[in-house]
Amino acid sequence: MALALSAELVATVAVVVAVAGAVNGVAGFGFAVVGTTVLASTLDPAAAVAFMIVPMFAVNVALVGELTREELRTCGARFAPLLVAALVGTLAGMALLDRLPAAPLRVLPGAVPPGFLARPQRAGAHPCRPAS
After folding, report:
1. pLDDT value at residue 85
2. What pTM was computed for the model?
3. Nearest-angstrom CA–CA distance, 97 and 94
């Protein structure tokens, strides 16, 4: 996957990341959904994922830096299976992107989240804060 970084491409990615960030700021979620879906509709899906991983990783590293040691330990224990599954899924997904047909991959990022959100969600305590 060779992609020339033209000024137009860099500007497009910057605008998409900014809009996705605004959606995330308003809704509390949606950065990856909006950004990856829009980029995958204009670029190769593998390139779209690669462009979106960098800002998502940077934001999550910054958020982890805001946690205390106790909160980090609590979150780490609670979300360890999710983190391992996300790492394995990301690596497997990146390996499969070049082998699968691109057309369904352009639609999938926008089709899966509404299905998840349609499921009933239960309210609960903040997952990373110890009970007081």
Report:
1. 94
2. 0.61
3. 5
